[in-house]
Amino acid sequence: MTITFRKVTVLGTGVLGSQIAFQTAYHGFDVTAYDISDEALAAARERFAGLTKAYQRDVAGADASKTEATAAGITLTDDLAVAAGEADLIIEAVPEVLSIKRDLYGKLAALAPERTVFATNSSTLLPSDIVDFTGRADRFLALHFANQVWKFNTAEVMGTEQTDPAVFTAVVEFAKAIGMVPIELHKEKAGYVLNSLLVPFLNSGIALAAGGYAEPAAVDETWRIATGAPMGPFQILDIVGLTTPYNILSNGDDEHKKLAAWLKQNYIDKGKLGAGSGEGFYRYDK
Ligand code: NAD
């Protein structure tokens, strides 16, 4: 049987959840967005207002009336029963904390209809870390977006061994329907495709500079000229922001911890946190 989705609920309206909700609504789906408090819902409204501007700037054909109608069309609620009650697909984008996610799926399992498919946007947890709490192992998988979904439009689709292939296919089709390029993983992999490539690449760049082998600008220049890529590792790190790579390296082995210490001492402690702070490895106009 072909599975199709019409009503989509997004849980968590932070950085990614707000973007996923907006992108889904922009492509004509019936979207409900859930968060835990009035403050969080007020922040969601602000984020949607910001996204109307970003889409007008970046997306061909996204005019004021279409983007404002998109924002206005998203139902916001802090009632999980309302959010889950009629959803065909629920996309979860709550904080990257295992206990929060497990607790939420435990509640959802009881509130959502049996047919509802659950998808997690988790960046670092595996769906199999959560599957036992979903009450629907065959209808659960990861659907992982990249920040700024309207521009950087990959959607990595990754199931567990228990995910029904028909559910996997339906989520791939959904990703296409909301303007994403679906990237299908055949089995679970921490970091999916993108971060499995990107994190070691960025760490190798940091190791070259931290080891005193070459300046960050020279590392970037090498990569750009020799491969034709538009950006080197330090340009990418500045866009990502230095805090996340610092946290990832701090959780690693002794070599990684040394790289974390180098980032902290030379950049983070000096307020050089990346492009968003005006300076990282490079300086930016605020
Ligand atoms: P965020 O902190 O910006 O947003 C999290 C939202 O969840 C907040 O609005 C918060 O109020 C809400 N929340 C907290 N507890 C909740 C609960 N019990 N139920 C529902 N909502 C709850 O986080 P984010 O950066 O949007 O990340 C969310 C998820 O998306 C994480 O799993 C993260 O790994 C993943 N992700 C993030 C990025 C990124 O670049 N930020 C990229 C891809 C994937």
TrEMBL record:
<keyword id="KW-0443">Lipid metabolism</keyword>
<dbReference type="Pfam" id="PF02737">
    <property type="entry name" value="3HCDH_N"/>
</dbReference>
<keyword id="KW-0560">Oxidoreductase</keyword>
<comment type="pathway">
    <text>Lipid metabolism; fatty acid beta-oxidation.</text>
</comment>
<dbReference type="InterPro" id="IPR013328">
    <property type="entry name" value="6PGD_dom2"/>
</dbReference>
<dbReference type="InterPro" id="IPR036291">
    <property type="entry name" value="NAD(P)-bd_dom_sf"/>
</dbReference>
<dbReference type="InterPro" id="IPR006108">
    <property type="entry name" value="3HC_DH_C"/>
</dbReference>
<dbReference type="InterPro" id="IPR008927">
    <property type="entry name" value="6-PGluconate_DH-like_C_sf"/>
</dbReference>
<dbReference type="InterPro" id="IPR052242">
    <property type="entry name" value="Mito_3-hydroxyacyl-CoA_DH"/>
</dbReference>
<comment type="pathway">
    <text>Lipid metabolism; butanoate metabolism.</text>
</comment>
<keyword id="KW-0276">Fatty acid metabolism</keyword>
<dbReference type="InterPro" id="IPR006176">
    <property type="entry name" value="3-OHacyl-CoA_DH_NAD-bd"/>
</dbReference>
<feature type="domain" description="3-hydroxyacyl-CoA dehydrogenase NAD binding">
    <location>
        <begin position="7"/>
        <end position="187"/>
    </location>
</feature>
<dbReference type="Pfam" id="PF00725">
    <property type="entry name" value="3HCDH"/>
</dbReference>
<dbReference type="GO" id="GO:0003857">
    <property type="term" value="F:(3S)-3-hydroxyacyl-CoA dehydrogenase (NAD+) activity"/>
</dbReference>
<feature type="domain" description="3-hydroxyacyl-CoA dehydrogenase C-terminal">
    <location>
        <begin position="191"/>
        <end position="284"/>
    </location>
</feature>
<keyword id="KW-0520">NAD</keyword>
<dbReference type="InterPro" id="IPR022694">
    <property type="entry name" value="3-OHacyl-CoA_DH"/>
</dbReference>
<protein>
    <submittedName>
        <fullName>3-hydroxyacyl-CoA dehydrogenase</fullName>
        <ecNumber>1.1.1.35</ecNumber>
    </submittedName>
</protein>
